[in-house]
Amino acid sequence: MRSKSSDFIPKTKIEILCADKDEEKILDTIQKAASTGEKGDGVVFTYNVDKIIKIKDKQTGDNAL
Questions:
Q1: Considering only CA atoms, which of 7, 21, 4 is closest in space to residue 62?
Q2: What string of pLDDT tens digits covers the 65 residues of the chain?
């Protein structure tokens, strides 16, 4: 039995948590830096975080960032 060649592309996961006001600037920066026009440039997922609490000093929301 012949083995198939693989088109595996190594992946890196980066998670960024930011204030809503910074979202578009960050997305634009990622797209400009990561775009090569080739397969494997990546995908960006965005989602809302309902609540953030900094354990150390109990700050919440943007103050916890």
A1: 21
A2: 565 667 788 888 999 999 899 999 999 999 999 999 988 889 999 999 999 999 999 999 889 98
Question: Do residues 44 and 31 touch, judged by C-beta distance below 8 A?
Answer: yes
pTM: predicted TM-score of the whole model, two decimal places: 0.71
Under DSSP, the state recorded for 56 is T
Cα–Cα distance measured from residue 32 to residue 35, given in angstroms and rounded to the nearest whole number: 6
> Could you tell me the CA-to-CA distances from 62 to 9, 28, 29, 53, 59 in Å, in that order?
35, 21, 21, 10, 9
Q: What is the CA radius of gyration of the chain?
A: 18
Q: Are 65 and 18 in contact (CB under 8 A)?
A: yes
Token pair recorded at residue 1: 């039995």
